[in-house]
């Protein structure tokens, strides 16, 4: 009983400054944790790759190179002849889950190419370095998508974000290393 009386006396007679110090220290710690969490979130979001398709303004002066260059930031080549357009993209920064990004970028490229009257039969092939069993790296084709003229005209490219390009394309082939 004596200990309880002493504790009540101490709490009742203790200066408010001590209680303020304890509360202030806890508030400062919570602020530090909040700012640390905020900083970590910003850093992680800044490191991510932009997955949203980029908008391209296509007009009569737009070239296939302009369209591809605005959508992908990888090295690429374009071959055009009599309405046949072959695009080869070399992606040296392939990571797990990149198949979805390749498909999104390819679909966006096809949608923009559909606005060019000179493009009849487009194809896109994605290549990336793969490590051989002996440790050597070589560029291998991971993904190949082709549209015949008839199929390319049939597709509603205005709604390209809803398309399943794997089943829509005239020819679709992916390397087994990309998964399903």
Describe this structure in words.
By secondary structure, this protein is an alpha+beta fold. The protein folds into 2 domains: 46 residues; 115 residues, no CATH class. The chain is 43% helix and 22% strand. It is built from 6 helices and 5 strands; from the N terminus they run H-H-H-E-E-H-E-E-H-H-E. A 5-stranded mixed sheet has the order 1-2-3-4-5. A hairpin with a 2-residue loop joins strand 1 and strand 2. Helix 3 packs antiparallel against helix 4. The relative contact order is 0.10. About 3% of the residues have low confidence.
Globally, the shape reads globular
Measured between the Cα atoms of the first and last residue, the distance is 73 Å
| Largest sheet composition | 5 strands, mixed
Strand ordering within the main sheet:
1-2-3-4-5
What is the rounded Rg? Answer: 29 Å
Number of domains: 2
Low-pLDDT parts are 19-23
DSSP helix fraction: 40-55%
Number of helices: 6
Element-level helix/strand string = HHHEEHEEHHE
User: What does the oligomeric state look like here?
Assistant: single chain
Q: Quick check: average pLDDT?
A: 78
DSSP strand count: 5
Classification by helices and strands = alpha+beta
Report the sheet-strand fraction. 15-25%
Brief synopsis:
By secondary structure, the chain is an alpha+beta fold.
Quick tags:
180 residues, alpha+beta, 5-stranded mixed beta sheet, 43% helix, globular
